Amino acid sequence: MMNDNEKLFNSGILTEEKQEAVLPPMDLWEKKKNGLVVIECPQQIPCNPCHDSCPTGAIMAFENIIDIPRIDYEKCTGCGRCVARCPGLACFVVDLTWGEENEALMKLPHEMLPLPRAGDEVACLNRMGEEVHRGKVINVTEPWKDCTRVVHVSVPKDMIMKIRAVKVV
Amino acid sequence: MKTTEILVVGGGPAGLSAAIEAASLGCDVVLMDSDLKLGGQLIKQTHKFFGSREEFAGTRGFEIGNLLFDEVEKYKKEGKLEIFSNTTVTGYYKEDGIVSYTIGEETYDLIKPQRIVMATGAQEKRIAFPNNDLPGVYGAGAVQTLMNVYGVAPGEKVLMIGAGNIGLIVSYQLMQAGVKVAGIVEAMPRIGGYWVHAAKIRRLGVPIYLQHTITEALGDKVIEGAVIQEIDNTFKLVGEPMKIDCDTICMAIGLTPTCELLWSAGCEMKFVPQLCGYVARRDAMMRTSHPDIWVAGDAAGIEEASAAMVEGRIAGLAAAASLKPEGCQMLKEKSTDYLKRLENLRAGETGAKIRCGLEQVCCECWG
Ligand SMILES: Cc1cc2nc3c(=O)[nH]c(=O)nc-3n(C[C@H](O)[C@H](O)[C@H](O)COP(=O)(O)OP(=O)(O)OC[C@H]3O[C@@H](n4cnc5c(N)ncnc54)[C@H](O)[C@@H]3O)c2cc1C
Ligand code: SF4
Ligand code: SF4
Questions:
Q1: Which of A124, B104, B279, B356 could disulfide-pair with A133, CB 3.0 to 4.6 Å?
Q2: Is A80 near ligand 2, meaning CB less than 6 Å away?
Q3: Which CATH class, in words, describes the domain spanning B126-251?
C-alpha cells in the first residue's frame, strides 16, 4: 500500500520531504532583491520553455529535453518570465527582501478569471487548494502578452512554502 | 477523375506538416480533412504545449495551428497545395489505388493520388457503467469541441474520469471556462499525465481520487450525480461507494489510432498496447508495407502533437522524395535532424512506453 505522502505526491502534491530539492540557498535568497525562482517540476518530461524563456541563463541549458530544470541562483533576477512561460505553471518567484521584516512578495502564475487587480485582497491557496491566507495584490503583469498573468502578492514570510496560487474572492 | 501527386488524409498537426514538406519539394499536394476547420486536435487546445522550441513549446495549441496555417497559406498561393475541408475520405481501393471521398453530405467523388500520407489521428475510448447512455456523459474530445471551438459550456459541474494528460488538461480548461470540476477519478495508483498538470489543478482545490472507479451514473433523464468507489491493485471494488454531485461526466480514458483506411489498403497492421491499438508497421521514414502509403501522427500510435508534427514532416518529405529523385538529398539532410528531434522527445521515463511500442512496429527498411 502507498503511504499518505506517496499518495499525495502521486496525485500532484509536493510533500514536505521532497521540498529541499527545489529551494534556493537561504543566505543568497535573503539578500536578493526582486527574489529568486522556486521550481516544482520533479518529473522528467519532454519540456524546456523555462530555460528558453530565461533571459539570464539562470535556468541552465538542458543537455537533454527531459532533464529536470537546474538553476544557477546567482544569475536569477526574479524577473518572472519563466513563471509566465512554463506550461506546467511550476515556476514561482519569492522575494524575501520585499516589505516589512516578516513579509515576502510572491510572484505566482495565474490563468483563471476573474483576474485579480492591484490592491485586491485575494485568497491565497496551498498546494491542495485550501485557503491559508488573505493577501494583498501588489501588481499584475503579463510578461509575454499571451494572457498568462503573474500576480505579485504580499504574504507572511512563514507562508512562502505553502502558498502556490491565488483566487479572487 | 481528379489526380494528384500526393494526397494527405487528415489536417491535424501531422497532416499539415506532411503537406507543407511535400509541397516544399515541389509536389502537387491535396489535403482532405473531415472537419470544417483545419488543425485537428490543435484548434481545441488552449493550454501551452510542452516540447522544445522547434515544436513551439510554451505556445498555446491553437496558436501552433495558426503557425502551421501560415505555412500552408504560402503553398496554397503558389498553387502547390489544395485544401478540401469538410471532406471525409471514405475508402481506398487496393486494385487501382483510387480514393473515394465525400464533401459535406452531398458530393461524392474519386481521386487518384500517386502517394498517400495517412494522418487520420485518433478516436476516443469509452468505458461501460450503468447509465452511461444518459445525456450529460461525454468524451473529453466532445467537451473540448463544445467549449473551445463553439464556446458552449457542457454543464455546471463535471466529474472527470481519467487522470492522464487529457483528463488533467481538460479539467483545467473547464475551470478556465467557469465550469466546476467535482473531481478526477483514476484507476491507477498514480496520475498518468504529467505531474505538473496535476499540481496546477490540485492547488485550485480539485480532488484526484487515485485507485477509484466510477460504478454508476445517477439520474433518470439527465445526469444528477455519479457513484465512485475505491479499487485495489487487482481492480476489485473495496471500501464504501461515494456519491459525487455533478451534472456532467467526462470520459478521458484514452485514445486509439484511427486506422480503417490503412486496413483497407492492406497495410501490415499490428496490435501494440503501448501505442494504444492497431498500428501500421512502418520504416524510419514512416512508409508502411504498402509502397505508396505513409503514416504519421496519432494514426501511427498515440503520442503528442510535437511528435506528430515531426513524423508528418518526415512522411511528407519521404513521400515527395519518392516521386522527385532530386529531393533525395534534401530528405537525407533534413531527416537526420528530424529523427534526432523524435529521439529527444521520446527520451526518459515518460517516453519509455512509446519507445517500447515503436520497437514492435518499426522495421529498418522495406527494401
Ligand atoms: C486535451 C488534449 C491535450 C493535449 N495536449 C498536448 C500537449 O500539451 N502537447 C502535445 O504535444 N500534444 C498534446 N495533445 C496531443 C495532440 O493534440 C495530438 O497528439 C495531435 O493532435 C495528433 O495529431 P494528428 O495530426 O496525428 O491527429 P489529429 O490532430 O487528431 O488530426 C487528425 C485529423 O484527421 C481528420 N480525419 C480523420 N479521419 C479522416 C478521414 N477519413 N478523412 C478526412 N479527414 C479525416 C480529423 O478530422 C482530424 O482533423 C493533446 C491532446 C488532447 C486531446
Ligand atoms: S525569474 Fe527570470 S531570471 Fe529567474 S529563472 Fe525565471 S526567467 Fe530566469
Ligand atoms: S517549463 Fe515548467 S514544466 Fe517545463 S521543464 Fe521547465 S519547469 Fe518543468
A1: A124
A2: yes
A3: alpha beta
Residue boundaries of the structural domains of chain A: 4-168
What tens digit of pLDDT does each residue of B9-39 get?
A: 999 999 999 999 999 999 999 999 999 999 9
Which residues make beta-bridge pairs with B270? B279
Q: Is A145 helix (H, G, I), strand (E, B) or coil?
A: coil
The amino acid at A163:
I
Which of these, B204, B202, B301, B206, lies nearest to B250 by C-alpha position?
B206
Among candidate residues B183, B166, B173, the one with its CA nearest the CA of residue B248:
B183
pLDDT in tens, A56-105: 999 999 988 888 999 999 999 999 999 999 999 999 999 999 999 999 99
Name chain A contacts of B210, Cβ cutoff 8 Å.
Answer: 7, 10-11
> Helix or strand or coil: residue B1?
coil
ipTM for the assembly: 0.96
pTM for this entry: 0.89
Architecture of domain B2-123+255-361 in this structure: 3-Layer(bba) Sandwich (3.50)
Supply the angle between the helices B13-24 and B61-77 in degrees, to the nearest 10: 30
Other CB atoms closer than 10 Å to residue B68's CB: what's the count?
23
**Can you tell me the distance from the alpha carbon of A130 to that of B231, in angstroms, rounded to the nearest whole number?**
27
In contact, B193 and B168? CB cutoff 8 Å: yes
The boundaries of every CATH 3.50.50.60 domain in chain B are 2-123+255-361, 126-251
Kindly identify which residue of chain A lies nearest to residue B173, measuring between CA atoms.
A112
Which member of A12, A66, A90 has the closest CB to residue B208? Answer: A12
- To which residue does cell 498515440 refer? B302
